[in-house]
Design goal:
Strand content: 5-15%
Order of helices and strands: EEEHHEEHHH
Shape: elongated
Number of helices: 5
Strand order of the largest sheet: 1-2-3
Helix content: 55-70%
Structural class: mainly alpha
Radius of gyration: 25 Å
Number of strands: 5
């Protein structure tokens, strides 16, 4: 039987072993995701079979939390649900699918690198604009000649 101690995690005592468990609300708050997203990940099989307590409420164990963290990390990295599902399928039999796992991860790494490069370029452009318009503001306030944009280019 599960005994709740706090919202940050309950202590469960099953067969003489103590372990921390979490409710769906605990994880929702901790990771700032909707409870419906957790149920959706479970429905898709990404979170596997989540145990239920005597009241029928979901009980998440540390392994479930770690799996959720992987899902959220992969989502933040731009992986689709299909790609995440493939990764976990490959991971379940990594000996057979190690090449598939590496290809999936390498492709995602390259996509992230391209996004990072594009973001860096956009960041530098915004920085030049800030510099230029700061100079424009100073020229207006000081009654001076307007700066030339070419002075702020790469």
């Amino acid at each position: 039987m599960l005994e709740r101690k706090s919202l940050s995690g309950a202590v469960s005592s099953i067969e003489g072993r103590s372990m921390t468990v979490y409710s769906i609300q605990d994880l929702s708050r901790r990771y700032r995701i909707r409870t419906s997203a957790l149920r959706y990940y479970e429905e898709l099989g990404l979170l596997g079979d989540i145990e239920r307590n005597a009241s029928g409420q979901r009980v998440y164990r540390q392994a479930d939390v770690e799996r959720l963290e992987s899902i959220l990390c992969f989502k933040d990295a731009g992986m689709t649900i299909s790609e995440i599902r493939s990764f976990f399928t490959y991971e379940a039999d990594e000996r057979e699918h190690i090449a598939d796992m590496l290809k999936l991860l390498t492709d995602r790494k390259q996509a992230i690198e391209a996004q990072r490069d594009a973001l860096e370029e956009a960041y530098l452009h915004v920085c030049r604009k800030v510099g230029y318009y700061s100079a424009v503001q100073r020229s207006i306030e000081g009654g001076q000649r307007h700066p030339d944009w070419s002075d702020f280019a790469d």
